Amino acid sequence: MDIEDFNARWLKAWSAKDVPALLAFYSEDCVYKDNQTAAGITGHEALRAYLTGLFAAMPATTYTPDETWPIAGGYCGRWYAEMGEGGSAGRMRGFDLVILEGDRIALNEVYVHPMPA
Predict the structure, then answer these.
(1) How far apart are CA 54 and CA 17, in angstroms?
(2) Backbone dihedral region for residue 16 (phi beyond 0: left; psi -120 to 50: alpha; all else: beta)
(3) Parent domain of 70
(4) Which side of the chain, N or C, has fewer Cβ within a 10 Å radius?
(5) What distance in Å separates the CA atoms of residue 55 and residue 78, rounded to the nearest whole number?
(6) Is the entire prediction scored with pTM above 0.85?
(7) Under 8 Å between Cβ of 63 and 79
(8) Phi, psi dihedral angles at 84 (to 5 degrees)
(9) Domains: count for the chain
(10) Alpha-carbon span 106 to 67, nearest angstrom
């Protein structure tokens, strides 16, 4: 698998707030964790509900891939995000730990850091 391409397509779906497209990247029994779901959520239905609420509450956000590193069972990827027009609602740097089952995400841990304006 070309992890750089996979990561770029995945982040494009995040930027589009496209929940069905995002779910296609995840295994049915995936585990997802971020700073709002530190205990994690499991499975497509829980992830669908979470993403739907998250996207409704946040401004348009553009995720730009920066770098990926292969690891055993998956990869790590760093990205930047601008929220609102030109980052008017904030900027973030993020890092994903991605463990794959075949070509789908089984585990996704997300770490984010706000950046100065």
Answers:
(1) 9
(2) alpha
(3) 3-115
(4) C
(5) 21
(6) yes
(7) yes
(8) 80, 175
(9) 1
(10) 20
List pLDDT tens digits, range 56-79. 999 999 999 999 999 999 999 999
Give the CA count within 13 Å in the CB-facing half-sphere of 78. Answer: 5
Q: Picking from 19-23, 38-42, 68-72, 98-102, which range would have the lowest pLDDT averaged per residue?
A: 38-42
One-letter identity of residue 7: N
CATH of residue 64's domain is 3.10.450.50
**CA dist 22 to 11, 12, 71, 116, Å?**
9, 9, 22, 28
Question: Which tokens belong to 99?
Answer: 């463990």
pLDDT at 72: 96
Tokens 């401004």 locate to 59
Q: How far apart are CA 62 and CA 103, in angstroms?
A: 24
pLDDT band at 41 (very low <50, low <70, confident <90, very high): very high
